[in-house]
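Researcher: Sequence recovery benchmark, item below. Answer with residues only.
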């Protein structure tokens, strides 16, 4: 029998829970870090306590770990084995507004369970920044939450109506605490942005990246109480094939 999955850890700033096992997309990011010949750092947005940053460091990458909560990054640093610390850079601040990096300065970007905290315009700006920072041959690995999660089930008819009406950001909700009565709803922000494959892939394609894969799935570390129908999680992998200009 498999051992029970390790429990997710609540974030300190009520932005959900940090997983403490790699999800499928994060694993692909770590594999990319291990296999790429691009000798540039990688950026982990919403790194929390290091669930993906530490395996990426172990795979040999230089990791810029970003989080809006500096307390998370301090724990990440404490959790990092000594032999990897010299390749760890802590970058506190909210993505995209407070993150400033050089053009073509990154081999990869990883954003797991964080982009659904951004508004539509922040997401579009963030995708443009990521496209600017990646070198040619670099890739972005994204994992996000979708509307097809059990606590948000009552939102689905509205999401489908908005999608049919061609709304640009059909999964934006600014009153989650009033709308949903899940017992742990206060552990997420009142405003959340549930993402679907069409919205996310359009946003990253518009930024100039080539979408390699964008798919709905059920990430292996998702709590049982969040599961609905196998479409709870959204993965996207996109590559920069040519310079932007
Ligand atoms: C749900 S946790 C995800 C942690 C981890 N990446 C994972 O996959 O389990 C979200 C993390 O993103 C951080 N965060 C939320 N909004 C952010 C933003 N705009 N910029 C940077 N970090 C952010 C939170 O502080 C938290 O550590």
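Model:
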């Amino acid at each position: 029998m498999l051992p029970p999955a390790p429990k997710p850890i609540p974030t300190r700033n009520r932005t959900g829970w940090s997983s403490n096992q790699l999800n499928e997309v994060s694993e692909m990011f770590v594999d990319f870090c291990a296999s790429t010949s691009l000798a540039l750092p990688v950026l982990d947005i919403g790194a929390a306590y290091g669930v993906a940053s530490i395996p990426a460091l172990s795979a040999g990458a230089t990791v810029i770990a970003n989080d809006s909560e500096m307390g998370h990054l301090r724990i990440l640093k404490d959790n990092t084995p000594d032999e990897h610390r010299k390749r760890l850079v802590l970058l506190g601040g909210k993505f995209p507004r407070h993150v400033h990096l050089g053009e073509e300065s990154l081999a990869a970007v990883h954003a797991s369970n964080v982009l659904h905290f951004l508004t539509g315009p922040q997401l579009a700006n963030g995708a443009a920044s990521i496209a600017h920072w990646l070198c040619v041959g670099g890739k972005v690995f994204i994992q996000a939450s979708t509307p097809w999660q059990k606590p948000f089930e009552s939102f689905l008819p509205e999401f489908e109506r908005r999608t049919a009406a061609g709304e640009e950001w059909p999964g934006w909700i600014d009153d989650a605490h009033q709308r949903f009565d899940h017992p742990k709803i206060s552990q997420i922000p009142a405003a959340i942005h549930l993402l679907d494959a069409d919205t996310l892939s359009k946003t990253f394609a518009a930024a100039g990246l080539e979408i390699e894969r964008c798919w709905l799935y059920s990430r292996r570390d998702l709590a049982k109480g969040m599961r609905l129908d196998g479409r709870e999680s959204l993965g996207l992998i996109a590559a920069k094939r040519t310079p932007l200009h």
